[in-house]
Amino acid sequence: MNPHHRADLLLVATTLIAAAGWIFSKEALAGFSPLLFIALRFSGAGLVLAFFCLKPLKNLNKMQWATALKVGALFGFAMVFWILGLQHAQHLGVGAFLTSLGVVMVPLLNFALGGEKPSRFAFLSLPFVISGLAVLSLDSEFYFGWGELCFLLSATFLAFMFIFNSRAAAGISALPLTSIQLLVTGLITGGVSLVFEEWNFQHTPAIWGWFFASLFLATSLRFLMQTYAQGLAPPSHTAIIMTLEPVWTALLASFWFSEVMSFSQLLGCTLIFLAVLVNRLPALRLWLKSKRPHL
Asked: Where are the domains of the chain?
């Protein structure tokens, strides 16, 4: 299979696991403080992955360690601003939209940082992505305050993290890179949690069950798959596919919480699906051509 096609399939699977992670996290946060949950989730997932790559970790040179630590720091600060946004935002739909814009920034930021020029199909897909995310997340209320600024800062850090993670994955194996990235994220969020939150570990077995599902599936497995896939294709190729995450999240949440999706949510999901199809139109054409019967 073409590496780009393999990246597509892995990233679609990643977005599905990430969507399930929203459900796991929401259930776990019924007992955990937000920053403590993220700190334990990411540091625990990093330790799990590090256990399976102790030798590769020892073999990394100073430059590779510096690169991996930089990616982890970007992700850690992104998560801190995301949590601050959750605490202070006036309207979570606006926050979800602003955070999702991080992926939209990737092709343009990557080009500005000396990466490859996005294809015309990537540019054509952007209006569909932005309008789809807007329809999916926003309603008549739009307020921009401190919380919304935090979401926008989180999106910016996530965009840079995505770009540098893709570049790092081209020269560092996915397993050690992901383990370092998750451990650094856990340490940063844990430090902030220690200052602002009270730590409590008296939770029901159900809460711990959701926590471990978040740790092993939505963090260890999800970010390992994402990092590996990002090493197979440039950021401008992979970024748009990641916008499927809010689509799967909306669909899964409507099923899990027995909610009926509104027309605007369905329209937003449809627009994002169209954006992915437009972005991958050349590959789609080749696939359809290969399926035609030869006369």
From this structure: 3-291
